Amino acid sequence: MKFVDEFRDAEIGRAVAMEILAMVEPGRHYKLMEVCGGHTHSIYKYGIDDLLPANVELVHGPGCPVCVIPMGRVDDGIAVAHNDGVIFTCFGDMMRVPGSNGSLLDAKAAGADIRMVYSPLDALRIAKQNPDREVVFFAIGFETTAPSTALTLKRARAENVANFSVMCSHVTIVPPLKALLESPDLRLDGFIGPGHVSTVVGGRPFQFIPADYGKPVVIAGFEPLDILQAIAMILRQLSDGRCEVENQYKRVVPYEGNLRALEVMAEVFELRPHFEWRGLGFISHSGLKLSDAYADLDAEVRFSVPGVRVADPKACQCGEVLKGVIKPWECKVFGTACTPERPIGTCMVSSEGACAAYYNFGRFAREREVV
Amino acid sequence: MTDADTCGSHHCITCGDDGVPMSVVLVDEARGLALCEGDDGARASVEIALVGAIAPADVLLVHAGTALTVLEHVA
Does a structural domain hold residue A16? Predict the structure, then answer.
């Protein structure tokens, strides 16, 4: 397929890997964070880390939309789903995220009407088909997904679909990056920037990373050659003593982003004062809620939401994984008590989660073998 | 629960942060929607409010039912 096959060419991949090998300084350890869970998935699906020199370490960032949802937020969703007459809709992976007393899937098994959808537009369609029921869409995701929710809310308003509402758990990517850069636990040399978030927000929001923290950022696509080339571009910046935002993914990402999407988001959403992230705690201005103009379509206004903070299970180390402090296989329950079939932590739920990526692609409990 | 219900063990196109290329089959400008087809032949209605004018056979980057950008204008 065009835009895919040409970015999976093994011969070119080996050539870029050799270029990377030639650029690294012996004795120096490079720690690069791939921000986006989609990159984490691709890295392990294609074995990209096996092509890297031993002193280039990839650290997995907080960009998996499911992984950052705290248990209390799942409990809130389940509480809304248990209201009489409610059809609660969400994306598939979200159904398996554990709350303090089970997941949305468990709540469905217990009788709540919870349905998987592929898009908010599907949820709106269910609302139109069931005018005597209240249909709630549990919106998660970064700036990639938020415009889709915003457009659906505008459509619900235009079509007078009064029985539709959104429980907004959208988050933004820059605040957690700032929190990570301020963290004393972590020393990073550069960032592989999120490809499709950048399609919406562009490259400008990441300028603070080189400007304030002196680290390079390279926005990258999701195919193996995209990621390898991005790593090479970061290493080239480090080798040249430069740090700037570069765009490897120019075929998709315009520097200014998608202005229409940004306008729609600004109209429909506003920043929450703070939002809780799994493992990262409360981060100021990192979550979105519906703006006053759309408050009538806000499920948190329409229904009672407990809003109780729930501590993560003690055995689960998703927080350390999300901060890149430990590798998934270093977690005590990885692959034993916590598996994709029975996840304890969110990082094992979504295929974009670092733990699930390690587990699904056979990185059970070992350091990378250097050939 | 089947793979179709959970998105399976493969990359989830909805929960995830990345989009997929889809070809335009039909454009319904009045409703702001396009019928699009993925590489696997699966079809879906897609919001087209965020992209400019499109035509059948154009390739869009689609995420969660919304076209984020035009990858290729064929016409």
Answer: no
> Are A312 and A347 a contacting pair, CB within 8 Å?
no
Q: Which of A117, A140, A145 to mutate to test the interface with B (most CBs of B within 10 A)?
A: A145
CATH number of residue A167's parent domain:
3.40.50.11740
Specify burial of residue A352 (Cβ count, 10 A radius: 0-12, 13-18, 19+): buried
Check if B2 contacts A (Cβ < 8 Å).
no
| A297 phi and psi angles, rounded to 5 deg | -105, 15
Instruction: State the best of A128, A250, A252 to mutate against chain B, taking most chain B CBs within 10 Å.
Output: A252
ipTM: 0.84
B43/chain A closest Cα distance in angstroms? 12
Domain ranges for chain B: 14-72
CATH annotation of B14-72:
2.30.30.140
pLDDT in tens, A32-49: 999 988 898 889 889 998
Does residue A96 lie within any of the structural domains? Answer: yes
The model carries a pTM of 0.90
